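Supplementary Methods, section 5.1.

A reviewer requested that the exact input to the structure prediction be made available. We therefore reproduce it here, unchanged from the version used in the analyses.
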Amino acid sequence: MLTLKKTLPALAVILAFAAHSVTAAELKTSEERESYSMGASVANYIAAQIMKQEALGVKTDKKLVLQGFNDALQNKSKLSVDDIIKELNKRQDVLNKLEEKAVEKAREKNAADGKAYLEKNAKKKGVVTTESGLQYEVLKQGKGALPTTADVVTVNYEGRLIDGTVFDSTAQRGPQRFVVMSVVPGFEEGLKLMKEGSKYRFVMPAKLAYGSDGIAQIPPESTLIFEVELLKVEKVKGHQGMMKGMGMSGM
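The structure derived from this sequence is encoded token-by-token as follows.
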């Protein structure tokens, strides 16, 4: 995940040479603190953009960024509004193409890594591969009801990428309650294999999860690993008030 730690100090050095240093103690009035906060907020945004662009290989002259900021504040811009828009659009076109290449490269790598992981996992003792490609392993077999598509379930779960990165978990939030049909295909299929009281581990190919686009903390073409404990199965009419997914990742 991107952070500002590497970019902000570089921008701060430029600011230190460009203006007199101001300490927090000198910001006495509301106007002074608000004004300073406006500048800091803009700088934070610019720093984040610079870091993202440099990660794609597009360099930025930070001194000129600062000069452009100061010139604009004094209404002394060296470029017209039309020229500024033209230059920024040109830069954005370059960034868009580089981002597309980076995403495609990530897709190819994740797809290859996922395929290799699935092939290796399929050979492990106790792992079953369904017709759709979902892999599951029974960690604990319950004796309760099997959920159907329209049922409401309460579960504990943890979702991981194949590199071990945890992207979602009920460990902090507690058990989650939702309609079986509201989750991604692989998760829905897996839930319908489990009896109430069971705990399973699922390995889900990208086509049964978030596919070539990914979502939030899940990169494109990611094979996912879930450990799921099915706590309760309910028959609820209308599913009023049910969650449409699970947590941040909207399973």
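DSSP finds five helices and seven strands in the chain. These observations are discussed further in the main text.
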